[in-house]
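Narrative of activities, Objective 1.

The group set out to show that a structural description can be obtained from nothing but a protein's sequence at a throughput compatible with the screening campaign. Below is one input-output pair from the validation batch, recorded exactly as produced.
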Amino acid sequence: MSDIETQVVDDIFARSEAWENLLALTDDIGSRMAGTQGEVAARDFLVETLRRYGLENVRAEAFPHRAWTPVREALTVTAPVTREIPCRCGGLSPSTPEGGVEAEVLFLERGDREEFKQVKDRVQGRFVVAPYYPVARQLKTPLAADFGAVGLIEARSHAGGLQPARTCAFAKVAAIPVASISREDADYLRRLEARKGRVRLRLTLESRVEQKDSWNVVGEIGQGVEQIVIGGHYDSWHVGPGAGDNAAGVVAVLEAARGLARYGEHLRRRVKVALFGVEELGLVGAWAFTHRHRDALKDTVLMVNNDVGGRPTGIGVMGAEALKSCLEPLAARVRVAGENLPPFRVSVGGPGWGSDFFPFIAHGVPTLGIGTTPVRPEEAIYGHTRADTPDKVYKEGLTECAAINAQVVLHVANLPERPARQMSREEVEVYFRAHRFTETLELLEMWPPERVVERYFSF
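Output recorded for this entry:
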């Protein structure tokens, strides 16, 4: 470990502000849903904090998006009994007619294409009721629409009586209305059908979609043409304060930036901190960032993404297997407290589309994330619900993740050569095909990058 790395890590552990910053975002500001005053308050807090930490060229970069606001959410069992079921409107769900949409239900176990094919003769004209896991709502929604469902009801996979918030389409209004219900209410509907016959539901949703500006908060450390981008998203859902998803990731980035800010002159490469807006409605801020800074992407050596915290367990590399051997010596010296912990390792995984690293991978930029695991079971199961509160966050893990982020950035910033080359467009496509990712991107309408930018930002 170099003298500077030792100083940075010691400072982060000795003077961490991560927990207080998390409370400022969650307890003081609360929900940071895109298009709300909570988002504006978070933007201002992040700008002020990065400036206080001594970063250079701190600014809020505006970008347009389709801001979504739920207005009315109602779900009623109309047969064989009458009963109200609490529900949450899916993000970017279309409004129903004023009197709602009424139909029988069809229960699914997964909601993937194979299952839809198996029940294709029964989907037409019905509500599909499917679990939160294992298939994402953004994939179930277009499949349900393609097979003729009148709507999708997604049930939370964990107990607790909560209705999860999640967008049902990326940066566009979905083709069919979508709502979420609790696991307990889904189980009730199944029992009702088994005991008393076919179940009919009436779903009434009203939501508002309007063009607004949101912001990426950006600051810089050091100089140089080549750069490392380190970031995470600061927006949350309307249902709660988003402590684990993703205030935890944001404060890990802030704390890493605080530790690194004094050492800019010792870095061969520039460090660009990017805290993204509107991740929850389709990685919109990250796409805006890669589009705005597209000329600098060729000089981007690495993107480090932080999304959801816990106890650090390893470093996950995507899009550049050569990073593994480069980072393994660093992995051997990270500080993670706890008993009987497995070795902290570097692993190489396939592409994912569910967080802000994806627009960078789509442009061939090597990416990685800090892998974490919950210390207590309740830390992991409350994401996208009103129960994603600070008490679910592992406090010590925030500082541990911050230190690891700083170590990665220091290490890569000072390598004499790039640790991994960027992929060409053709190599990215081969990478996606090798991991059977093509159909997923088609359902999401997330490829190629030019199509995404046109769809996201042409109003």
